[in-house]
Amino acid sequence: MTKRSISIVIVVLALYAGSYLVLRARCVEVWARDRRPYLIVPSGSPWLYYLYRPLMYLDGAITGLRFHIGPHREAPPARA
Length: 80
Hints:
Blueprint: H1 3-27, E1 28-31, E2 36-41, H2 46-63, E3 66-69
Parallel strand pairs: 2-3
Antiparallel strand pairs: 1-2
């Protein structure tokens, strides 16, 4: 690979990681049920889940962050 190609690859990877960090900063929520942080991928954009899936697994392994598509579904209220 040429020096230019290596530079382009580095810039693309930096943009990929940087855009993931922006998503992470905007979409992390703590779920009241278990008090753990979750990266909530907007349900209207499931392609984001697949785009950032490798970084989510790495992030989860390092920080314990969990992730899923769409908001948490709360359990229905118990019937009396």
